[in-house]
Write a structure and sequence with these properties.
The protein has 374 residues and is α+β, with helices and mostly antiparallel strands. It folds into 3 domains: 202 residues, Sandwich (Jelly Rolls); 54 residues; 92 residues, Alpha-Beta Complex (Outer Surface Protein A, domain 3). It contains 12 helices and 19 strands. The two termini are 23 Å apart.
C-alpha cells in the first residue's frame, strides 16, 4: 500500500536519482499510478469546508486575484461571541460554480492524514514542509503565471490540470501525477473541461547561504555600526572603506577557521522534526486507567534519541524538548524507542511503581500513546 512507502519516492520515483539530477536544479514529472486517497480526498475537502473553517484556512481566487471574503464568509456564534470570518459552504459552492478556485491553506495543520504525510516527507528531506490544496472548476486558472520562492511538488488528486513549466513545456497532470518544481521555476496552470483537485507541497529549502550566515553571526565584531554620517555628501569614504576592510577580514577569518564537520553537526542539531500529536489528549485521559496490563506505543513520527549525560543520567530528546531521566530507565526506554507496542508491566529493570511513573510521564510528554491492546 502506498501509505507504507517512503513519501519522497511516492512523489518522485527513484529518490537517489531525484537527489542527484533534480533537487534544486530541474523540474520533474513523475506518473505515480496511485490516487493518494490516503492523504486527501474530495470528501475530506467537503468535510473541511462544512465544519466552520475560518480564514485564512480557506481563501478564494479568480483569474489570479483574491475574491472578496465578504462574499463567501459568514458570521456565526462561537462560545458566546460573534465570529465574522467563518467559511459559508453554500457561498463556496456558488463561487466554485462561478469559476473561483478554492485554496485550502496549511492542510498539514488541519487534516491529520496530510499532517502525517508532511511529517514523513519532512523527516526524509530534512527541509520544512507545508501543504496547500487547490480545488479549481473547469476552464479556470487559480493563480497568474509566477515562480515560487520555495520548491514545490504538485500532486494531482482528482481531475486534470494543464501546466506550462519553464524547462518542461506543456504537461497535463492526471490523477496520481506528481510535478516537482525547483524554487524560482516559472509556471502556470489551468483546468480544461474537468474540475481539478491538487496538493501543492511546499519544501522550504534550507540553503548553504543560510548556514554560512549562521556561521558569520558568531563573528560579533561584524555587529559594530558603520561610522556616523558615513553617507553624508561631505563624508570621507576612506573611513568607511577602512572599517569594511576590517569587517571583511573578520568574515574571512570566521570562514577560513571554521570546521566544516562542526558546522555540519550544528546544522544537523538545528533541524527539529515535525512532531505528530494525534492521540496525545486521548492518551492523557486514558492515564486514569493505566496499570501493568496497559499497552503503550511510541507516537508516530521521528523517533526520540537517547544518550548518556556526564552524570550518567539519560538525555531523551523528543524533538521539541529534552527529558532527563535516571540511568536505570535505559533498558525500558530502549525497548519503547524501538516502536513496538509494549505492556507497562513488561518494562525491564524497574519495579511496578517505577514502570507506572515512567509510562505516565512519557504519555504526558507526548512520547507514548496508550493503545487498546498490545
Amino acid at each position: 500500500h502506498g501509505a507504507m512507502r517512503p513519501v519522497l519516492a511516492r512523489c518522485v520515483g527513484d529518490a537517489e536519482r531525484f537527489a542527484h539530477d533534480c533537487w534544486g536544479r530541474a523540474p520533474l514529472l513523475h506518473r505515480t499510478g496511485e490516487d493518494f486517497a490516503d492523504v486527501l480526498t474530495l470528501a475530506e475537502v467537503d468535510r473541511l469546508l462544512s465544519s466552520a473553517a475560518r480564514r485564512p484556512e480557506v481563501r478564494l481566487m479568480r483569474a489570479g486575484e483574491p475574491v472578496d471574503a465578504a462574499s463567501w464568509c459568514t458570521t456565526v456564534r462561537l462560545g458566546g461571541r460573534q465570529v465574522t470570518d467563518v467559511v459559508d459552504p453554500v457561498a463556496i459552492a456558488r463561487a466554485l460554480g462561478d469559476g473561483a478556485t478554492v485554496v485550502l491553506q496549511s492542510l498539514h495543520r488541519t487534516v491529520p492524514a496530510v499532517g502525517r504525510f508532511a511529517s514523513a516527507l519532512e523527516s526524509e528531506v530534512s527541509h520544512p514542509v507545508q501543504v496547500n490544496a487547490y480545488l479549481t472548476p473547469p476552464g479556470a486558472a487559480g493563480l497568474a503565471p509566477h515562480a515560487d520562492g520555495h520548491d514545490v511538488i504538485a500532486v494531482q488528486l482528482h481531475g486534470t490540470k494543464a501546466w506550462t513549466v519553464d524547462g518542461l513545456g506543456d504537461v497535463l497532470l492526471e490523477t496520481g501525477d506528481a510535478l516537482y518544481l525547483p524554487a524560482g521555476t516559472r509556471h502556470a496552470a489551468e483546468t480544461n473541461e474537468r474540475s481539478s483537485l491538487h496538493l501543492t507541497i511546499g519544501i522550504i529549502r534550507i540553503t548553504y547561504r543560510a548556514a554560512i550566515g549562521r556561521l558569520l553571526a558568531r563573528a560579533t565584531d561584524l555587529d559594530a555600526p558603520l561610522p556616523l554620517g558615513y553617507a553624508a555628501p561631505e563624508a570621507d569614504r576612506s573611513e568607511l572603506a577602512a572599517g569594511l576592510t576590517g569587517a571583511i577580514g573578520s568574515a574571512a577569518t570566521a570562514l577560513t577557521e571554521a570546521d566544516p564537520a562542526e558546522l555540519a553537526e550544528s546544522e544537523h542539531r538545528r533541524r527539529r522534526p515535525r512532531l505528530q500529536h494525534e492521540g496525545h489528549v486521548a492518551s492523557v485521559v486514558a492515564l486514569d486507567e493505566l496499570g501493568p496490563g496497559s499497552c503503550v506505543r511510541l507516537r508516530a513520527g521521528p523517533s526520540p534519541t537517547l544518550s548518556t549525560e556526564e552524570d550518567d543520567r539519560l538525555r531523551l530528546d523528543l524533538g521539541d524538548r529534552v527529558l532527563h531521566l535516571p540511568a536505570i530507565a535505559r533498558p525500558s526506554l530502549e525497548l519503547m524507542v524501538q516502536g513496538a507496542p509494549v505492556a507497562v508491566g513488561d518494562l525491564p529493570d524497574l519495579d511496578e511503581e517505577s514502570r507506572l511513573v515512567l509510562a505516565r510521564r512519557l504519555v504526558r510528554e507526548g512520547m507514548l500513546v496508550v493503545e487498546a491492546s498490545c
